[in-house]
Amino acid sequence: MQKLIVVTGGTKGIGRAVVERFLQAGMRVVTCARSATDLLALSSELGQRYPETPVYTLAADLSQADDARRFVEFVRELEGEVEVLVNNTGGFEPGRLQDEPADGSQLRRMIDVNLYSAYDVTQGLLPEMIARRHGHIFMLCSTASITAYTNGGSYCVAKFALYGMTKVLRAELQEHNIRVTAILPGATLTASWEGADLPAERFMRPQDVAESIFAAYSLSPQAVVEELLMRPQLGDI
What we know:
Radius of gyration: 17 Å
Mean pLDDT: 95
Strand order of the largest sheet: 3-2-1-4-5-6-7
Number of domains: 1
Organism: Hymenobacter lutimineralis
GO molecular function: oxidoreductase activity
Family: Belongs to the short-chain dehydrogenases/reductases (SDR) family.
Keywords: Oxidoreductase
CATH superfamily: NAD(P)-binding Rossmann-like Domain
CATH architecture: 3-Layer(aba) Sandwich
CATH class: Alpha Beta
Number of helices: 6
InterPro entries: NAD(P)-bd_dom_sf, Sc_DH/Rdtase_CS, SDR_fam
Helix content: 40-55%
Structural class: alpha/beta
């Protein structure tokens, strides 16, 4: 049966680079994003560049549990087995915890988009991986998962939690022969940095992260990259 590569948030930045890297390897990709327009543009462009390899898309906001379940069902209905799951969906809001709304709304938004999106999709697709005793799960964490930034606020809290969940999954899934990898990239030239008064050379490229994910996936089944910490050559920004 053909393999499926599932990449959440695949229309921009690191997610898009990951989608393209697996398409280059001739593997079918399933992705989602909130914008149906962006997904249509992605499908059109990649369909021309990789006409022999299909890309399946669904408009969904994975910070919403109902949309996450709908995306999982969409994947399940496709022909093929999920070989790789890349949980890339995320969002960033700067600020200090002490300055955030007292109602906790900012923390809840950051948890929903950065943690629950990955939790819900993973939980939905995991039973079949366990039954097959095969698969590789990547979690797009961040250097903010291990370093507290004073302007990171609830984003840091959510990314720390995602890193913790990744460690738990790694421990639980060893006996099921499923690999789990935490990816912790520093400053990468994506939409999150639009407007920054810094040269492009100061950032990593999304393709750098995608190539590292593909390399970790390509190892023999006897090896796993448990976590991969990446920073710009000149250090954090």
